[in-house]
Amino acid sequence: MRRRSTYLAHSQSLIRFANGASMYAWIAVAVGGALGSVARHGVNRLVHQGWPLLRFPLATVVVNIVGCCLIGVLAGLVATGRLPMRTNWREVVFVGILGGFTTFSTFGLDTITMVRSGDSSQAVLNIVLHVVCGLAAVHFGLVAVERFGVITR
Asked: In this structure, how many other beta carbons lie within 10 angstroms of the beta carbon of residue 106?
């Protein structure tokens, strides 16, 4: 049975990808991502203007905490039906805008969803993979580049 798709536009002539998603949906998510990235840059600039000599990554902390709060509020409103949102708009908002703003918010929502559904072991695994493996991957990337002489200390 073929899954029926919905469009933000009513055009039947849109290019379709292998999974059935229209090019318009991909473009909408990309535009949302651009908006989220611009918002992230705005927060970075505000924080650095307020504390220009701060060596702690406060802007990143602010973005991640604000993003987590936003995704929690929006997910709660959508889940309870208080904010009706079609699937394509959820993709734009959650994947595009919030994804461009911070992927940490998605990590937070996924982890809390696992805990609330009683899947604590999966939540712990999610935390370990993201935090420990993510930090290890950053370290590995830096070491790999240092070995090829691109980064100097």
From this structure: 16
- Which of 79, 65, 77, 78 lies closest to 108 in space, CA to CA? 65
DSSP state of 131: I
Which tokens sit at 38? 């611009």
**Predicted confidence pLDDT, tens digits, the chain (153 residues):** 444 443 334 334 345 555 666 888 899 999 999 999 999 999 999 999 999 888 888 898 899 999 999 999 999 999 888 999 998 999 999 999 999 999 788 889 889 999 999 999 999 999 999 899 888 988 888 888 778 866 555
Assigned token pair, 4 = 């029926």
Supply the Cα-derived Rg of the chain in whole angstroms.
Answer: 19
Residues 64, 82: Cα–Cα separation, whole Å: 25
Look at residue 11 and give its three-state secondary structure: coil
Give pTM, 2 decimals: 0.70
d(CA 96, CA 103): 10
